Amino acid sequence: MSDYRIITDSTCDLTQELVEELDVDVIPMDFTIGTDCYKDYPDDRSISPHDFYSRISEGESSTTNQISMVTFEEAFEPYLRDGKDVLYLGFSSALSGTYNNSVLAARELAEKYPERTIRTVDTLCAAFGEGLLVWYAVQKKREGLSVEETAEWAELNRLRLHHWFTVDDLNHLKRGGRISGAAALMGTMLGIKPVLHVDGKGGLTMIDKVRGRRQAAEDMVKHMEQTVENAKDQVIFISHGDYKEGADYIQKLVTEKFGCTQFRVAPIGPVIGAHVGTGSVLLFYFGKDRESGLNG
């Protein structure tokens, strides 16, 4: 069986500690804040999460750029040249053109290295949910699955990866076209907090609107109760936009409700943070198929 390298992109929000633990490569995505340009590295060498969210809170805008085909080729080729196969697990194609660029790069490199296997998987996941799917893929690799088998496992199970999240500032969703300007204004005035999830196509869908941060957290855990499978045996991922107390509250609720003991908590990186803003909290776990779980 050929050796292979698992590669992902920085929208997965894996911390440097997790990157080293999992032994994966993370391709940094470019972003700007104000007039400054950065790369989103897992070790936060460009800008710390706190500094990023402080600038966002002060009114600076942030934009992101998808990873180019050339950057993918530069990330994949050294492993192919060394006789290894490549498995790339990428940001949902419903949210970015990044995955499509990885496919183009893989096609080019397949002609140059016909003896090697290059698999790209559209995870239909985002943020730390993408990171959690990468975490599971690494476990499958360590169990002895081949590059093809791990890719197939990811494609078969990606819709079991649930994403629930809430944002504190509705204007970030307005800028992303998820809600209207009038809805953002009215929601802000009334203290409305949306509860959203990533749907079966890998896009964002608003499910509930509640008042207050705590009610939003409790609503997320309610949805987890309806969709999770074997919660106590899972590693639960939680991320936050410079709002550790919100992540801690979610962890407390999940622990009390399900008896979970394994958690990974991390800041939301700047690429995802540019779209959800300061004060966001995200919850990720394995469960029923996303669509059947919501309807069942």
Provide a descriptive summary of the structure in words.
The chain is of the alpha/beta class and 296 residues long. It has twelve helices and 13 strands. It has a six-stranded mixed sheet with strand order 10-9-8-13-11-12, sandwiched between helices. The longest helix is centred in the middle third of the chain and has 16 residues. The model has no long low-confidence stretch (mean pLDDT 92).
Topology:
Layout: E1 4-9, H1 16-22, E2 25-27, E3 30-33, E4 36-39, H2 49-57, E5 62-65, H3 69-81, E6 85-90, H4 98-112, E7 118-122, H5 127-142, H6 147-157, E8 161-166, H7 170-175, H8 181-190, E9 192-198, E10 204-211, H9 213-227, E11 235-240, H10 244-258, E12 262-267, H11 270-276, E13 281-286, H12 290-295
Q: In percent, how helical is the residue content?
A: 40-55%
CATH topology of the largest domain: Rossmann fold
Detail the poorly predicted runs: none
Q: Could you give the distance between the termini?
A: 41 Å
Major sheet size, sense and barrel closure = 6 strands, mixed
- Level-2 CATH architecture of the largest domain: 3-Layer(aba) Sandwich
The shape is globular
Number of strands: 13
- CATH level-1 class of the largest domain: Alpha Beta
